[in-house]
Amino acid sequence: MYDISLSVSACARSGxxxxxxxxxxxxxxxxxxxxxxxxxxxGQLMGGAFDGLLxxxxxxxxxxxxxxxxxxxxxxxxxxxxxxxxxxxxLIVPADQFPSDLWxxxxxxxxxxxxxxxxxxxxxxxxxxxxxxxxxxxxxxxxRPAVFVADNEVTIVLAPITRLAIAGQGPIAEALAAQGKLLxxxxxxxxxxxxxxxxxxxxxxxxxxxxxxxxxxxxxTCLMYALESDAGYIGALGSPAMQDSxxxxxxxxxxxxxxxxxxxxxxxxxxxxxxxxAVSITAQMIAALRLG
Length: 292
What we know:
Layout: H1 5-14, E1 19-25, E2 33-36, E3 40-43, H2 51-58, E4 66-71, H3 74-80, E5 87-94, H4 102-107, E6 112-119, E7 122-128, E8 146-149, E9 153-158, E10 163-167, H5 171-182, E11 186-189, H6 193-201, E12 208-211, H7 216-228, E13 233-236, H8 240-251, E14 261-262, H9 274-291
Parallel strand pairs: 10-11, 10-12, 12-13, 13-14
Antiparallel strand pairs: 1-2, 1-5, 2-3, 4-5, 6-7, 6-9, 8-9
Helix pairs in contact: 5-9, 6-7, 7-8
């Protein structure tokens, strides 16, 4: 739900309806999908396998949410990877049925929980749980989203997962993406500055942005967006000469404080191959996020 919070909160401010869907079982994640009038969709859930099913509920414009049970069909199985016949459960709720302070807390990437009270499959109310200590919610083996289902209540626990945005492409970007995923991070690889701007805008102190590329203007633009963000780690690949050229480009645009940039990115471990470089960068990012 963290990934859709900016757009859904904007809908709430403008009075635009949005219906938010999350999966309860058999898989649990912080992914969510929101539907807006006219067929608009925000976010992604299970690769889009169940978009039609959930859209049908959203189009009814119900005043209260629903708990939805469904058996996976052959087409949905091929998209989602779930076996045909598996029972899946979703919660789909109008955004305005959630407590109003949910969205700001999601925007701040806080660890939270909320409980939906049910009358049968109808969501009668949603209450927000107390905040969880941010440090305790740092990504780790035991700090993952969870769902607890009782007879008439569903409690969803959300803990923010570190996100790594890679501005660039090529073998090092691919190796870095693979290493980030191995660590359990959410990874996005995007060479286009316009898209990097969006990723940077939603970054928080537990996230990282790595900029690479030989095009001075393109990579420097990405670095500028990274510096405008709240990302806890900013890395920039390239030689010292490349770092100086980017700094000059930024200075010409009144961006003079580049103290947050780790450049050249990565710890000094004698890395040469893309895989080794990826290890050195992710190790540096972990140190920056955990040790400050």
